[in-house]
Amino acid sequence: MPELSNLLAFGLISLGMVLTPGPNMIYLISRSICQGRAAGLISLGGVAMGFVFYMLCAALGITALVLAVPYAYDALRIGGALYLLYLAWQAVKPGGHSPFHVRELPKDSPRKLFTMGFVTNLLNPKIAIMYLSLLPQFISPADQASILTQSLVLGFTQIMISMSVNALIAIMAGSIAVFLAGRPVWQVVQRWLMGTVLAGLAVRMAMEGRR
Predict the structure, then answer these.
(1) Do residues 136 and 59 make contact, with C-beta atoms less than 8 angstroms apart?
(2) pLDDT tier for residue 211 given thresholds of 50, 70 and 90
(3) Cα-based distances in Å from 136 to 62, 132, 139, 165
(4) C-alpha span between 177 and 101 (Å, rounded)
(5) Could you give the number of structural domains in the chain?
(6) For the chain, how many helices (H) and strands (E)?
(7) Nearest-CA neighbor of 97 among 84, 106, 87, 107?
(8) Above 50 in pLDDT, residue 210?
(9) What is the pLDDT of residue 180?
(10) pLDDT tens readout for residues 13-43
């Protein structure tokens, strides 16, 4: 087991990360508004599987191999940047809408919702970087026999915090949308703010070199 101080510190960092807007949050909001809370929560299940995938890769040392291959890392990084740019364009394009805007979209099957949540999380290289460079800092190397256990406990802590916050966001997405619907100016401000943030994250991700 990780030391209590390390567990608490890692938990606080995980909370700060999940509160930062990103592809996972945008996707969950859009699904919850377009297809209901149940669809948002199903999508959240896919996102959770993405976290589990990265956590197991990090715990077993596979992530280090992926990041050691320049082309593999670059493909993941560029793919994530392009996806962010797509979301940004959807927000600011003429006739575009805020992610909180209530609109009719084709309803996806539970399988597709789950799969898209999983893929959305996998396209974010920051998750791989977090598990490779951040998580090891909270592991005590003195007890080598429990390194795998420490990694898994810390990883599941991050997943539980992320799922709790994102579930709350998915459930409240409809209420936020109703609030914005009666305030057109706020809709425009929120839409351009979100688009700018997403575009900025995409540019930073695309320009960022390997660590």
Answers:
(1) no
(2) very low
(3) 14, 7, 5, 24
(4) 6
(5) 1
(6) 9, 0
(7) 87
(8) no
(9) 63
(10) 788 777 766 778 778 887 888 788 898 899 9
